[in-house]
Amino acid sequence: MILVTGGAGFIGSNFVLDWLAQSDEEIINLDILSYAGNRENLATLDKDSRHIFVQGDIGDTVLLTHLLKQHKPRALINFAAESHVDRSIHGPEDFIQTNIVGTFHLLEAVKTYWYNLEGEAKQAFRFLHVSTDEVYGSLVKDEPAFTENHRYEPNSPYSASKAASDHLVRAYHHTYGLPVLTTNCSNNYGPYHFPEKLIPLMIVNALAGKPLPVYGDGQQIRDWLYVKDHCSAIRRVLEAGQLGEVYNIGGWNEKANIDIVHTVCNLLDERSARVDGKSYKEQITYVTDRPGHDRRYAIDASKIERELGWKPSETFDTGIKKTVQWYLENQHWVANVQSGAYREWVEKNYIDRVI
Ligand code: NAD
Ligand code: TYD
Question: Which CATH architecture group holds 2-190+227-252+292-312?
Answer without folding.
Answer: 3-Layer(aba) Sandwich (3.40)
